[in-house]
Structures are given as C-alpha cells and as structure tokens.
Prior knowledge:
Layout: H1 3-21, H2 30-41, H3 46-49, H4 52-72, H5 75-80, H6 82-106, H7 112-122, H8 131-136, H9 143-170, H10 180-199, H11 201-204, H12 212-231, H13 236-250, H14 253-281, H15 285-290, H16 292-318, H17 320-329, H18 337-346, H19 352-380
Helix pairs in contact: 1-2, 2-14, 4-13, 4-14, 6-7, 6-9, 6-16, 9-18, 10-12, 10-13, 12-13, 12-14, 16-17, 16-19, 17-19, 18-19
Amino acid sequence: MNIFLFLAIAFLFTFIVGELIEKIKVPWIFAALIFGFLLAIKNPFSQITNSSTFTFLANLGMYFLLFIIGFEIDLTKMEKKSGFIIGITGMTILLETIFGSLIVHFIFNYDWFVSLLVPLSFSTVGEAILVPILDEFGIVNTSLGQTIIGAGTLDDMIELATLILVVVLVGSTVHTHFKIGMTLVSLFVLFALTIGLTKLKKEGKQFSFINIETLFLFVIFTLFLFLGIGMYAESAPLAALLAGISLRTFIPDERLKYIESEVKTMCYGFFAPLFFLWVGSSINIKYLVMYPTLVLLVVIVSSLAKLIGSLIIGFKKIGVKQSILLGVGLSVRFSTSIIIIKILLDSGLIGSNLYSVIVASSIFFTFVVPITFSNLLVRWTKKKE
C-alpha cells in the first residue's frame, strides 16, 4: 500500500470515529489518536508510519498546533497573570522533581544527580496535546486556558535549558552536530525576531490592505523561517510558539480572525490528525506489559505532584475545581523531554528499565489525560467563561 491510500484510510477512520466520540464530549481529532493506538497493537502499515515522509508530516502537525498556541496567546492577559503562571509552573515542576527523584534514587538505585535530572526532564508539559480541547470548548483565552498555555510555554524554556545542560554534561554522541555556540546564536536570533515583530505593530498596519491569500503566504513564510532557525538550536517546537506569538502582535487586529481561520483549517484539516496518529502509533505495548506496577507508580506520583502543586498555588485564585482541572491538564506529556531521556539512555547514565517506564508513563498520560480533561471540562465549566 502507498502513503496516499494509507492517508485515505486514516482520515476516513478519523471522520467516522470522530463523529462517535464527540457524543461523549471528546474532541473528534482524538479519533486519530485511537487509530494510532490500534496501529501500536498491530501495524500492517509500519513501513509507512516509520517512513521519513510520514514523520515529517506528523512533525508539521505538532509545529502547526504549537504555532496556533502562540497565535492565540494574549500577551496582555499573560502579563497580568505572569506571577501566577510562574508560581504554578515552578511549584508543579519542583514537586514532581522531588517526588520523582526519590523514586529514581531508591527504586532504580541511581545517584542523586541523575535522580534529579531524570524527573526534571519529564516533569514538563506537552501542551500541544491539549490545544484541540481548549479550542473545542472555547477556553483558549480564559483564565484556565491562558494559564495552561503560559505554563506550557514557560516550561518549554526550562526543558530547553535542561536539554542544553544534559548535552554539555554527558557529551552525547546522539547529537554530534549539536553545537552550543550555534544553539545560543539561533536562540538569540529567534528571540530578536520575536521582539522585533512585536515592536513593529504600527508597521504591521499596512497588512490591513493586502488580501488574505497574500497574508497567509506571509504567515507561512514566517513560521517556516522561525522553524528553520529553531532547528539549529534543536528547539523547533519553541520556534513555532514564538512565531505564533510574534505574528499575533504584528498582524492588524481586523485581519487576525480571518488569517487564524485559514491556519486552523489547514492545521486541523490535515496536519493535526497525522500528529495524533503518530503519537498513538509510537506506543510500545511491551512497556505497558513488562512494567505495569512501576509505570503505575510513576503515573500516580506525577499526577499527585501536578494536582498538589496546582491546588497549593491556585485554590485561592481560581478555586478548587479549576485548580484540579489545571493539574490534570498540566499532567499531559509529549515534547522534547523524550529526547532528553533518550540522550541519557544512549550516554549510559540510565538503563533501559528506567527509560521504558518513563516512556510508558508518558504514553499513558498522552492517551488518558485528554479524555479525563475533556470530561471534567464538560462537568465543571461552561463553554465560555
């Protein structure tokens, strides 16, 4: 079978099953995740799903989702809540790192340095998974939505710093072309471009007079420019976020709604389902079978850390239910944390058992959190605040 027939099957499955799961208030796009999970059990299309072409398309799905996150971030609202976002992010990462280090040290018998480094790397949030849910329920620009996005954006930077730290310390051969000097230059250029575009609000008004098609091409150019620069720093996900943030500020307000619609149509209509299919198909069932108790322990500890951290910081400001929702949302994973763990494995700092448990727990969160989060949203919130 060729890739076009495979895509036809994937989109047909997503369409049919998506209609069914929407009846239980789960966004239709997670039908693609279900299809990927089925492929993880038995995959007759492994040659296609493991191909560089499919991986490239799936990665584009992730980048477009992250771009939409950035595009929908309201910097004014985030600035007002910056202290709260820093508090939530810091507390949840701190608790998960502390609890996780105890497990890694006493159960897996690693020294304290590795025991702290491992949970720090996987305590961050894969916020791209939650974008369709936030968008589906119209809560992207609510207090809850902006806090989740803000925390996810902040810990992306923490995650990148951790990645650089790991590469410097272990001298990993996995990324032999990862040059720290080039990384720093690339990051500097990314942030300079972001700040530059946000400062050119007046100049951006001239885009009020060009047609949507031309503006769309400019948006795509900017996204790929950011991604291209970000690739040199191994930080393309962060680059996609920054591209969205900068363009939201640069593009005139009267054009934002129309261009956002164009980008979302392309993202959710084609790339995002492939991303979720890819996430589901990457599940290794053997991990779940071989280490069920340890996986369950990591899941429980990680979940409690997120929930407790969210409640400590948020119960007075946003209430208990919203804090629980926040904790559940921040539990989702799928980001470059897996890359960090892979470097630690390949460098010999951790063994295959610990690596397997971490990957399996990430898979669990990726699949369970979106469904749990969706159902709690239905019960506890209105569609719009």
